[in-house]
Protein 1
Amino acid sequence: MAVLSILLLSLLFSVSHQQPHLDSSEQESVYQILHSLNPTIPWRNLFPDDLCLSAPHGVVCDYPTQLNQTPHIVELSFGYVSDETPNPPCSPNATLHFHLFNSFPYLRKLFFYNCFNHTPLSLSPSFSLPSSLQELVFINNPSFISPLASLLQNLTSLRRLILIGNAFHGHLPSQIPAFLNLEELTLSRNNLSGQIPSTFGLLNQLKLLDLSGNNFQACLPDSLGNLSRLLKLDLSFNAFGCRIPESLRGLRSLEFLDLSFNRLGSFGVPLFLGELPTLKEVYLSGNSLSGAIPEIWENLGGVQRLGLSEMGLVGSIPVSMGVYLKNLSYLGLDNNNLEGPVPFGLLEYGGEINLENNNLSGRVRLSTRVGQKLKLKVGGNRGLCLDNIMDKKTDVPDAVVFSGASSLLWFDSLFLFSFGVLVFTGF
């Protein structure tokens, strides 16, 4: 048995030494990148051997299927995220020589988190990343100041492009055929501008499109309705104008829609929303859609969060909302011109309901369901009278009522706790 064990160990040692080492140019480039991101750490001393056998978290090689194949770097992730993903940390004055990435012809993923916060960085017009990249992620790098077009050159294999909280600027590319493999496009909180090219409708693999928090303008193209696989569309906090295109009824897989805080207007809450039964979250707040709330809720029983605040809505709250929206955890109807009573059904299932600053009237009776937690904001409706679950009444016109609360919740440091109901005034 001892002889057999020795033979096996000898064989494993022999095989391991037959495995080719990481290409020397790739190894050297990794060292240089690590040094430029954080020169306070002795990377070469900590990881002196083949980086495919021993490397910092975030430096990943492929695993050749044949002994004679040379391993290559396929993933590079930098910037400490958490103890579960302890990527090499970046120093406060991190910088980077981008030409070093030309050494990684097999690179599939490149990730930077919170690395570039002080020293301004920009890309030269001739810069290009390896065409093998499938996933490119830059999150919270505010000193990365560069045109978006410079970053995207040559990236014909991209499946996920995630650029959040950086300083990329310029327009979206119109030459979409180069990006037909894209499944996720998240460009939120940058300085991008212009409009959405109509060619975006050709991205038929796209499942997530997030352009929120930029400076986009103009109308939404009708071609967005061609994205039949789209699960999430977030265009909030821009300056999009015109109408919400009717073609969005083609988004048959859509679960999340956020068009809030743009300049969309004058056509009311879109009726086609009632044709999208997969919707779970809808946010249209901060636009000038006006009009009455339509009767479209029968097929939208799966909606969990609905934001219709600050839209100039008029008329009454449809009773059908209380009948069909049984999964709501949030409803925002505040700061409109709504009038009339509050449908009791809205208050049956808990969650948060904001009805502040309307012209609502009548008596509001709260549910008595065991274990229910309801946060109800009704301040600014002078005609409302609130009845709580213990038959205690308040005629405080600016009341916020928490029903079934298990602990004290603070609001503007003014509160009254009695009989299991919290009534906050202090508006």
Protein 2
Amino acid sequence: MDNEHGSELGTQEYWESSYNREIKNYKSHGDVGEIWFDEDSQQRVIYWLLKQEEITKEAKVLDLGCGNGMFLVGLANEGFGQLTGVDYSPKAVELAQHIAQDNKLDISYKVADLTQPQDELGTFDVVHDKGTYDAVSLCPDSPKEKRALYLATVEKLLRTADSLFVITSCNWTEDELEQSFAEKFVKYHSIPTPTFKFGGKVGNVVTSVVFKKL
């Protein structure tokens, strides 16, 4: 994918319309909606977090571009108690709130544009992004500038130098993420993801990488 060309996936209108449809489906059939890509990556990240001794169930976790909130539902079911999700689509936040309430889970959801400073959110021990940096990259209007603004916001949301920024992307390779983040973050860990072989080369369908602040 050419990372400099915009797409409707980078527009708020696309996601508002998509989540509006999913709210109706959820209310009618209890269907929590589509997973944008690689449903298993969510579980891989949760499993990895559970194995980290320094990440306790009291850790403050923020999910960027939370969508229907199922990543945080997964963490809540594992006993995590300080969970916040943000999305720039009010309809996504509405759907996530319905799902959390129906499952009797105490998860905080807010509408937020992550290309703007989010000082009122506070700071977190774990900041998670699955596909949100991708969507920012697909923004038809100044994607490079938007990516820089997004990363500046993420940096401020991390509580300490040991806080973790966990990102899963279907649009960028691990090397590309490392290069793009080099001014603010350093790679801490790679979470293994499925590979494929094509023309004698091995590649990854998605990339999951954990970063820390420089």
Protein 3
Amino acid sequence: MAAATSPPRPGHSPDGATFIKALAESGSLTSVPSNYIFTNDPLDQAVSDPEESIPIIDLSSLTSGSPDQRSKAICDLGKACQEWGFFMVINHGVSESLIEMMMDSCRQFFDLTEEEKKEFQGKHVLDPIRCGTSFNLSVDKVLFWRDYLKVFVHPEFHSPNKPPNFSDNSMEYCKIIHQVARELLKGISESLGLEALYIDKAMNLDLGFQILIANLYPACPVPELAMGIPPHSDHGLLTILIQNGVDGLQLLHKGKWVNVKAVPNSFLVNTADHIEILSNGKYKSVMHRAVVNSEVARISLAVANGPSLDTVVRPAEELVDDGDNQPAYVGMKYREYLQLQQSNQLDGKSCLDRVMVSCN
């Protein structure tokens, strides 16, 4: 997406609202303010066939299936990581009631007053609790139609003290998601020809860095002019996402955008940059974006699961050699990569490009 030129000062809508929710619900908004307008990119017109089949992984086959069922699930998981960088997970064992409570807690947080939310704004990308709007107001040339809450939940658990039950619900939910991620990473390890716990050990997942990211995308009067989140890939290993029943996630597949239609009670999972690095490019982190609509607000809840902050991530030694499989990425400490991505504009896979070995 190419940004419109000469936007007004970032961080402030015309009526002075800090969060896009306040602006969208002001009752006087009939158009998109100029500092939220994106110009069209030719790729935007290339939306894939709505019947495109997104891979589905049955987690129960990985964790408790027969040897044949588990073998097939590992094969399917590897194929999904290689061809899509994205899959849906069913039979994950997380109760619908917990998912509903977690989504309700996120909704209640976004319903707090402007003053209450400002208590948690934070000032640095590694502040353990941070909420705001757009992505990075210090560098964003055009603002995104999105408010967010980011909370570090592992290895140290943090939580805002509002609304009631947010802390209890998020602690329970994120602990379970951490285990789901580890089970999926076992299967991904084996699909790469590595032993099941290779990624778990190499990435030090006992201290794996986990971030809860709640996103609110309010209804937009002219949705084709605004963007919830522009095309990007995620840092870390796996991002596991749920939403409030409102679609808006799109992923890039074979040069076209695919509208993601979630199966009821499923997790949406995408492989992230550090799976691409560890696999030496065999598995790709998927480019994705969030679009908005004019009818109803969308809430998504993503949990980013990464290595420990002090882990230097590089291609697995077992997947490289001196011949055709030379290392395609240089090692970088996860903390440094995270700071690099979060401190700059959200721009495709530009951060991953910085650790890619030049062919020149």
